[in-house]
Write a structure and sequence with these properties.
It contains six helices and 26 strands. The protein starts with a strand and ends in a 5-residue tail after the last strand. The strands form three sheets. The chain has a 13-stranded antiparallel beta sheet with strand order 5-1-7-8-9-6-2-3-4-17-16-15-10. A hairpin with a 2-residue loop joins strand 2 (32-38) and strand 3 (41-47). With 372 residues, it is an alpha+beta fold. Helix 1 (7-20) packs antiparallel against helix 2 and helix 5 (266-276) runs antiparallel to helix 6.
């Protein structure tokens, strides 16, 4: 095998592969990236047995062939090469060494046989549809902050992607929750998605998927089965197992009877919460919201480190209310708001609070209060 390609496109392909690879591996081949050169392109494939990333890049192929080499080492080498360099990768048959050369730099890396590399079995996908990158990015970016990190509740360790009914009709919906906060984001159903099974996309896959979604106009081909989900562009294919579990009935958690309405400038609110939370001894300390006619007082009282208070002008016309929240949760939810105003709907100091972006109902957030 022998091929050469420009450093920046090689770096992009190898970066995608090495981020999928797990740092601590008991199976040596899983630390490697499978490189296959054929025709006028090269594919780079990496897997941790749960996710597989495949990146295809154009290259000048002199000799077709394939091998596997340490993904992290190759990435580090390419990253440190000068920008604009032409990089040549070659392996003599049976040598067990991959030579990487660029200008005056030469590296010789140990390889493992490509036949030992596990390739994820292709599933029969029950639904195939296409969606714009910006639509998928919004669905996952706005929901992923609420993914649970508790291993015991493994079925909450991802984003639940499914088709559901809303007031506007059928929607493609992403939901994530950790029991303390919940995010529910809707988008119009793409053609072909109506029959898709609901799947829980794992946290790591959501992180890897983000790299495919940078170009707004890119079309992402999405394929879904009961056990796998695949996202593909012309150059990158990300295939992942889905979490084998049942996502809880989240609709029971979303309050419908909250009548006390607070409207506040989202950016100002987030900055004020951040400022008053500075004196709390740890970030999980509660921030108290005291609401009265068109005014909101945010306060933190940490006996060991001090106290803070800030007043904001808001739109609020209901009876006075005092309620406490985890400062970190409030900040994360407020930072999701793209529009100018955030609307909070309260019931009482002990009930879940609903938050949405202005009059937009396609993004709904729920946060549980804390005692203060």
């Amino acid at each position: 095998m022998k091929f050469s390609m420009e450093r920046s496109s090689l770096l992009r392909a190898v970066a995608q592969a090495q981020s999928v690879v797990e740092r601590r591996n008991t199976i040596p081949i899983l630390a490697n990236v499978l490189i296959e050169a054929e025709g006028d392109s090269v594919t780079f494939r990496a897997t941790d047995l749960d996710i597989e990333a495949l990146d295809k890049a154009p290259a000048m192929v002199e000799r077709a062939g394939g091998t596997t080499v340490s993904a992290v080492t190759l990435h580090e080498i390419v990253r440190k090469l000068p920008d604009g360099a032409q990089v040549t990768l070659s392996e003599e048959t049976g040598s067990g060494r991959l030579t990487v050369s660029a200008g005056r730099s030469n590296f010789s890396l140990a390889t493992l046989p490509k036949d030992d590399f596990p390739v994820m079995a292709s599933a029969e996908y029950s639904a195939n549809f296409s969606a714009k990158a910006e639509v998928l990015r919004r669905l996952f970016d706005k929901s992923k902050f609420a993914i649970s990190t508790e291993e015991t509740r493994y079925y909450l360790n991802g984003v639940y992607m499914h088709v559901s009914d809303s007031e506007e009709g059928r929607v493609l919906r992403c939901v994530a929750t950790d029991g303390h906060r919940l995010a529910r984001i809707d988008a119009p159903v793409p053609s072909g998605a109506e029959a898709m099974p609901g799947v829980i996309v794992p946290r790591k896959t959501v992180g890897e998927l983000r790299k495919l979604l940078d170009e707004d106009d890119a079309d992402i081909a999405v394929s879904v089965s009961e056990t796998k989900v695949r996202f593909a562009t012309d150059h990158i294919t990300l295939t992942s197992k889905v979490i084998d579990g049942t996502f809880p009935d989240y609709s029971r958690v979303i309050p419908s009877g909250n009548t006390r309405r607070l409207e506040v400038d989202a950016t100002e609110f987030a900055k004020a919460v951040d400022r008053v939370a500075t004196v709390s001894s740890e970030r999980s300390r509660a921030v108290k919201l005291a609401l009265d006619e068109d005014r909101l007082v945010l306060s933190v009282n940490a006996p060991d480190s001090g106290a803070a208070e800030e007043e904001l002008a808001v739109a609020y016309g209901d009876e006075a209310l005092e309620i406490g929240f985890n400062a970190k949760y409030l900040l994360e939810i407020a930072s999701q708001v793209d529009r100018e105003n955030a609307v909070f709907m309260f019931n009482s100091s002990g009930d879940p609070t609903l938050m949405r972006e202005g009059s937009d109902t396609s993004a709904v957030y729920v946060v549980m209060p804390m005692r203060v």
